[in-house]
């Protein structure tokens, strides 16, 4: 019996397994649980005030999502996305998000543009104050753009691909300097959206993701070279 819990303010009932799933997933995506971090089911259960059964069910769902790896009788860990798979993720997202940006451009309203501008301002402040929330604001910015389109399956696919890259493994977690150039690219995307240029918005969004991919490739290559032992 999973039991029932009430989630926050909307007063809609969800199962304990759903509650555990959402709580663990949030910790992974926020970076609170970093790649390769061990997830101890008994500890999670104690924190959430529930038995092991719903926690284990939640972990199986997260394994299906590609967010954790489970080795029976050994350990459950946050999945670390391999370098090649991470680059594939960004390549796929570059096309999906370019399409979404093109579709979203003619649907931009004054209200949506104002929200985007506020997010840009918050990201500017994050860069100045080094508050470590740039990655989360970055995702909010892009998803605010895509949320206006009618093609919900496309939005879902983008979110699923994005979820595979926990905050601790994001481009900003690995390459902090990338934040500055990324913010410049955000401003260019915003300008294209504001003037209603669908092609420019799509192309700039694609280039933005590919620049992140190039930054990842460069960082991984440098890391590989540092770890290569000298020939003897």
List the helices and strands and how they pair.
Elements: E1 4-5, E2 14-15, H1 16-30, H2 41-48, H3 52-64, E3 68-71, E4 75-78, H4 83-104, H5 110-129, H6 134-146, H7 152-163, H8 171-174, H9 178-194, H10 198-227
Antiparallel strand pairs: 1-2, 3-4
Keyphrases for this structure?
232 residues; mainly alpha; two-stranded antiparallel ribbon; disordered N terminus; disordered C terminus
Can you describe what's shown?
This protein is globular. It is mainly alpha-helical and 232 residues long. Helix content is 66%, strand content 5%. Helix 4 packs antiparallel against helix 10. It contains ten helices and four strands, in the order E-E-H-H-H-E-E-H-H-H-H-H-H-H. It has a two-stranded antiparallel ribbon.
Total number of strands: 4
Helicity level, as a percent range? 55-70%
- Which oligomeric state applies? single chain
Choose one word for the global shape: globular
- Terminal-residue CA separation: 61 Å
**Proportion of β residues?**
5-15%
Taking all Cα atoms into account, the compactness measure Rg is 20 Å
What order do the strands of the largest sheet run in, or round the barrel if closed?
1-2
Query: Helix segment count?
Result: 10
Structural class of the helices, strands and pairings?
mainly alpha
List SSEs in N-to-C order: EEHHHEEHHHHHHH
Biggest sheet layout: 2 strands, antiparallel
Uncertain runs are: 1-11, 228-232
Overall pLDDT metric: 85
């Amino acid at each position: 019996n999973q039991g029932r819990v009430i989630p926050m303010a909307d007063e809609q009932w969800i199962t304990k397994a759903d509650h555990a799933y959402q709580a663990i997933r949030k910790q992974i995506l926020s970076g609170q649980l970093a790649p390769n971090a061990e997830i101890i089911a008994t500890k999670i259960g104690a924190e959430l005030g529930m038995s092991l059964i719903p926690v284990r069910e939640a972990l199986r769902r997260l394994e299906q999502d590609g967010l954790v790896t489970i080795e029976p009788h050994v350990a459950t860990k946050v999945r670390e996305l391999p370098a090649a798979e991470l680059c594939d993720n960004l390549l796929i997202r570059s096309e999906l998000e370019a399409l979404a940006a093109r579709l979203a451009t003619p649907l931009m309203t004054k209200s949506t543009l104002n929200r985007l501008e506020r997010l840009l301002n918050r990201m500017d402040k994050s860069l100045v104050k080094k508050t470590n929330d740039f990655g989360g604001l970055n995702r909010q910015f892009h998803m605010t753009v895509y949320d206006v389109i009618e093609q919900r399956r496309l939005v879902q696919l983008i979110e699923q691909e994005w979820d595979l890259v926990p905050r601790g493994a994001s481009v900003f977690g690995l390459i902090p300097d990338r934040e500055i150039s990324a913010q410049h690219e955000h401003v260019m995307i915003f300008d294209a959206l504001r003037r209603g240029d669908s092609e420019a918005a799509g192309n700039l969004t694609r280039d933005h993701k590919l620049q992140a991919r190039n930054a990842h490739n460069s960082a991984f290559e440098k890391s590989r070279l540092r770890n290569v032992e000298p020939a003897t």
